[in-house]
Amino acid sequence: KSVVGMHARGPDGAALERASDDDIIVTMDSDDTHLPGLIPRMAQLIDEGNDVVTASRYQLGARMVGIPWFRHIPSKGLSLLFRVTYPIPGARDYSCGYRAYHPAVLRAAFERWGEQFVSERGFACMVDILMKLHMQGAIVTEAPMVLRYDRKPGETKMQVKKTIVQTFALLLRRRFGRI
Predict the structure, then answer these.
(1) 145, 171, 170, 166: which is closest to 67 by C-alpha?
(2) SS (H, E, C) the chain
(3) Which residues of the chain have pLDDT under 50?
(4) Its pTM surpasses 0.70
(5) Which residue from 18, 52, 90, 141 has the fewest beta carbons nearer than 10 Å?
């Protein structure tokens, strides 16, 4: 068994080409905010029968270090909004890119959606991937993480207002519009 890494913006075909069904595919940010020490726990949760494991900021035992206060409010607000309007069993943190996937669930998603599986831009991509995997019946769970923004080498590239608008528009399309 091995862990195959991928770009943080979402799974792609290159990782699936290399991964067997005994492997686990992991995505994480490369800015030193996601610590690799959580990977064994995430792999264990995949081995226990989950299809997707998200490193969560909202589980008991999670911590966020060095996050500016103005980022906490929209993050928690969007999390609550998604849990109320588009509940996914086992999910509280819809947007975190630090995830472990069973390769079979990603193969099925690429078969169903093709190139449209990873169709959103920016941070909304991770929300969209989670929603699509839920639509196909993926079992989702979370592992509490320590998010270390104090280790980030530079300023965030995320445009908070744009990300909120983009993510809210995605929610409206998935919940009330066409897929």
Answers:
(1) 145
(2) CCEEEECCCCCCHHHHHHCCCCCEEEECCCCCCCCHHHHHHHHHHHHCCCCEEEEECCCCCCEEECCCHHHHHHHHHHHHHHHHHCCCCCCCCCCCCCEEECHHHHHHHHHHHHHHHHCCCCCHHHHHHHHHHHHCCCCEEEEECEEEHHHCCCCCCCCHHHHHHHHHHHHHHHHHCCC
(3) 7-9
(4) yes
(5) 18
Task: Record the tokens describing residue 94, joined without a space.
Answer: 């819809």
Where do we find the tokens 């509490």?
Answer: 144
pLDDT at position 78, please? 79
Cβ–Cβ < 8 Å for 127, 78:
no
Amino acid residing at 165 = V
Q: Which residue do the tokens 């979370």 mark?
A: 142
Token pair, residue 112, equals 């169903």
Report the side by side order of strands in the sheet with 99-101: 3-6, 24-27, 99-101, 52-56, 140-144
Burial per residue of 63-72, b for 16 or more beta-carbon CB atoms within 10 angstroms, e otherwise? ebeebeeeee
